[in-house]
Amino acid sequence: MGHGRHDHGGDERDDVEEHDLGLAHDLPVLLSRRRALLALSGGLGAVLVGCGSDGGTTTAARTPATTTGTGTAATTAATAAVPEETAGPFPADGSNGPNVLAESGVVRRDITRSFGDASGVATGVPTTVELRLIDVAGGGGPLRGAAVYLWHCDALGRYSLYDDETASENYLRGVQVSDDEGRLSFRTVFPGAYPGRWPHAHFEVYRDEAAAVAGSAKLRTSQLAFPQDACERVYATDGYDGSAANLAATPLDGDGVFADGYAGQLATATGDVRGGLAVRLNVGI
Q1: What does the alpha-carbon distance between residue 97 and residue 146 come to, in Å, rounded to a whole number?
Q2: Nearest CA to 38 among 78, 75, 1?
Q3: Span of the secretion signal (predicted)?
């Protein structure tokens, strides 16, 4: 993983997010732990979760196969609140360094491009992340008008605003508001895999748009896991250097965030690497 101290030689993207301890450390400590985590990531490389791959719908192991966002993982999330997880050390929500939420333009569907004074564009397999917010506490109906701040790494495992090479960019971060059916979506690129973590996206759910841009009234912080066969097909394409090996070294069952259960966080995916993927998850709040 990048985040402010890559040389991008043979050991690029070789940091772990400290899983549930990321924000307990200040940023300088986080940005100096490359060598120690190389050893750790080797220890995490256990048995790879088994899952077939074809050119169609994608799912992942330990969850019965489904072909839509209303499958097993989504149904579980619809009847139970998504687990609270760490935001990790690179949230850019003001809690650990920069605050992209305070920037004009952060409310947008297309997060592939930087905004404001930045102009970079993230490259990778086109992907739409589609979330449906479920009001579990209110009886299971759609959660309308809530705002989601979503962020993830780029194809090389780097987070904007933190990595040396992407510190001046703010792409792959954005806010969207759920509609009357609780739905919202982001146009993005498929993230890469870096050592020690299963491919994922972070998100924070806020009461409404005003609360999101103010960084207040947060309802939930969690993470979405990308399905394995989608990852395998994406990482066989150009631009995802090292991701296939990193994926193989860290199984979903061994990930420090998802190892305790991921049924409500494991997305489904449809589409292909040429036409783009649609990744879906129902999120219980």
Answers
A1: 25
A2: 1
A3: none
Print the SS3 string covering 102-126.
HCCCCECCECCECCCCCCCECCCCE
Q: Per-residue pLDDT for the chain (285 aa), expressed as one digit of tens each?
A: 444 333 333 344 444 444 443 433 333 333 333 333 333 333 333 322 333 323 333 333 333 333 333 333 443 445 799 999 999 999 999 999 999 999 999 999 999 999 999 999 999 999 999 999 999 989 999 999 999 999 999 999 999 999 999 999 999 999 999 999 999 999 999 999 999 999 999 999 999 999 999 999 999 999 999 999 999 999 999 999 999 999 999 999 999 999 999 999 999 999 999 999 999 999 999
**Spatial separation of the C-alpha atoms in residues 257 and 271, rounded to whole Å:** 27
How far apart CA 140 and CA 78 sit, in angstroms, is 7
| DSSP-assigned letters across all residues of the chain | --SS----STT-S-----GGGGGGS-HHHHTT-HHHHHHHHHHH--PPPP----SS-B--TTS---SSTTSHHHHHHHHSPPPP----S---BSSSS-BGGGSTT-B-SB-SB--TT---B--SSEEEEEEEEEETTTTSEE-TT-EEEEE---TTSPPTTTSTTTTT---SEEEEE--TTSEEEEEEE-----TTS-SEEEEEEESSHHHHHHT-SEEEEEEEEPPHHHHHHHTTSTT-TTHHHHHHHS-GGG-TTTTT--TTTB-EEEEETTTEEEEEEEEE-
Q: Which amino acid appears at position 31 of this protein?
A: L
What tokens appear for 86 in the block? 């760490």
CA angle in degrees (0–180, nearest 5) for 3-61-275? 65
Taken in order of first residue, the domains within the chain and their CATH numbers are 19-284 (2.60.130.10)
